[in-house]
Every structure is written in structure tokens, then in C-alpha cells.
Amino acid sequence: MQKRDLLLTFDYELFLGAKSGSVKKCLLEPTDLLLNLFDAHGIKNAIFFVDTTYLIRLKEQNNDTCKVDFESISAQIRTLIRKGHYVFPHIHPHWIDAVYDADANQWSLKDYSKYRFHHASAAEKEELFAKSVSVLKEIIEPENPGYKLSGYRAGGWSLQPFEDFRPFFERYGITKEFSVVPGFKNLSDAQYFDFSGCPAKKVYTFSDDPLEEATNGKYTEYTISKLPVTGRMYLLGKVWGKYLWKTGQRSLGDGSGVVIKDTSVTKNKEDLLGSENEEMLSVELLTKVKLPHYKRFLRNNNYMHFISHPKMLSLHNINCFGQFLKWAKKQYILQTDFSVVEIQ
């Protein structure tokens, strides 16, 4: 049997707009469903990028409900590691300005002026990284002393300029990076990244700039895979999506995402590349219509990197993902551990 590198990565976070949603619906329940699926198919080494900025704010609240949420999340994080999966930090700086509604146990993150890490002050950057590492170690190390938080994904994929991150990567031993989507570009008032000039490799090393490959570089970039979207696939997907919506097969999460008012800094369509005829491979985008295309992608590529969000998953998505894993396990030897993926 042929081998395939299959990286399954998840941004473990609440919704980042006016209504955060609940811990139960956005994190605990969908992640438990994923774990059941992984157990059923013998899958280990999935990566969960935990929104540490939310955990920081959660700990700051002198509130019994917040304490229960923190402990529930902590227990699930420990379960993830116990079952052989990875947990790494993920930072959304605009949690600094989030407003908590104790009656609803919800957060409002309508102020996204600091959505991009670059827009946080120097002192805020220092504090966010230090507390992010600290809060995960507090959760993980009692059961896993010395656990290495060696991976990172930038909030909103906004990894640029890399000078913002490099001092913290060096300080905290982060050497593996998972933000780059080859060819994608978004220069909005919240997100800001341009990966249109990245190396023509799926996995490569860099030192000073994630768009410049460096032999034996300090950091390894594991690019996110993307799927070509044909006109027929798009139309069938729209029809199928309407059917799923009408029949109540919607995402399990109960929040609302950030609404970005300005389409881009320069308001040019060219500043939003990769969004019309390509999409990132994702469990929440995987439907019955797209399942044959995901299978074809794995047949034609020896590297496949999903980026997904538990809060966005529907039961239909999870069912299709289970079908995909069952098929893939029969066809290939699946290598799901990023740490042994070779430069390619």
C-alpha cells in the first residue's frame, strides 16, 4: 500500500464576533464527536490549536460559571493529549477587548481592531504570548511534564510581518508553523496576509520570512491544502447546502463570527485571492457533494492538510469525514504525525 501524509488540524475556539457561543456547543460536544470518530478509525496525532487568549480572559473572571468552563476545557485538552493528539497555542488578540455577559455566559468580540497580532502593542504582544504558554502548561504539565508547545497557527492566518512573531518563537521554542495557504491573500481591515509568493513546496523550512525557503531553516512550514472549485461543484454545493439548511443539518456551534465591514484595505478585488475558485480543505466544508473530490485529492497527492473548526461542524460534515477516513484507511497507509513528515 502507498503512504499518504494526512494532517488533521483544528482551531479550537469560540466564535469571534458579536456572540461567542457556548463552550458546550462550540468546543466540548463537537470535539467529543471528533474523538469518537478518531477512536473508531484508529487516528492519532490530530493537532488542536487552542485559543489561549480566550482561556486567559476566562481565568480573569471572578465567576463560578467561568471557572466551570475553564475546568471543562482543561479536562478535554488533557483528554486530547492522553489519546495521542497534539495541543498548541493559537492567539486572537482582540479577546483583549471582549465584553463578557455574565447572565448569558457569552462574550461579545465586536471590537476587532486588534484581530491581527500586528495591531497589538509591544507590551500586549509580550503578555499574550507569555500568558498563552503559561495557561497551556498549567493545564497540560501536571499529567505531561515537559510537554513541548512547539507548534503555532496565527489567528486569522495573519502571520505577517513575521518579525512580530519571531522573538516569541525563539523564546518559547516554537519551531513548527501551520498558517500558510499557498496562493491565498487577504488584505482586509482585520486579516492581513499574502501567501501568493510562497515556495512551491508543501513542507519547507524558513528562517526570517515564511515566503522565503531557507535550507535547514529554523522553522518548518506545513502548508494548508486547497481544493480547486469548479463551477459545477460550486452550484451543486449551493443546492446541497440549501437542502441541509432547510432540513436542520447545521453547524453545532451556537455563536456568530466576526463581521468585517471593509472588504480590504485598498478595496480592490485583487486583494482577496484564492477565494473564488479554490477553498481550503476542511471538515466543515466536506459534504456528500464534495466527498468524491476529497478522495480524488488524496489519490493525486501524497500530502493533505485539513484546517477545521469544531464550532463549525455539522453532523453531516462529521458523517462525511467518517466516510472519508474509512475509505482512506483502506486505500493507504496514513501518516498523521506531522513530526515525521519530510520536506517536500
Task: Provide an overview of this structure.
The chain has 344 residues and is α/β, with parallel strands linked by helices. The protein has one domain (3-340): Alpha-Beta Barrel (TIM Barrel). 34% of the residues lie in helices and 18% in strands. It contains 8 helices and 15 strands. The protein has helices spanning 23-41, 52-60, 64-82, 122-140, 166-172, 231-246, 291-300, 315-331, and strands at 3-12, 47-51, 86-91, 99-101, 106-108, 151-154, 176-177, 185-187, 192-194, 203-206, 219-222, 226-228, 278-280, 303-308, 333-335. Strands 1, 2, 3, 6, 7, 10, 11, 14 and 15 form a 9-stranded mixed β-sheet that branches. Helix 1 (23-41) packs parallel to helix 8 and helix 7 (291-300) runs parallel beside helix 8. Residues 263-273 have low confidence and may be disordered.
Provide the succession of SSEs: EHEHHEEEHEHEEEEEEHEHEHE
Outline type: globular
Strand composition percent: 15-25%
Uncertain segments of ≥5 residues (pLDDT<50)? 263-273
CATH-defined fold name? TIM Barrel
Number of domains: 1
- Fraction of residues in H or I helices: 25-40%
CATH level 4 superfamily:
Glycoside hydrolase/deacetylase
Give the topology.
Blueprint: E1 3-12, H1 23-41, E2 47-51, H2 52-60, H3 64-82, E3 86-91, E4 99-101, E5 106-108, H4 122-140, E6 151-154, H5 166-172, E7 176-177, E8 185-187, E9 192-194, E10 203-206, E11 219-222, E12 226-228, H6 231-246, E13 278-280, H7 291-300, E14 303-308, H8 315-331, E15 333-335
Parallel strand pairs: 1-2, 1-14, 1-15, 2-3, 3-6, 6-7, 7-11
Antiparallel strand pairs: 4-5, 8-9, 10-11, 12-13
Helix pairs in contact: 1-3, 1-8, 2-4, 7-8
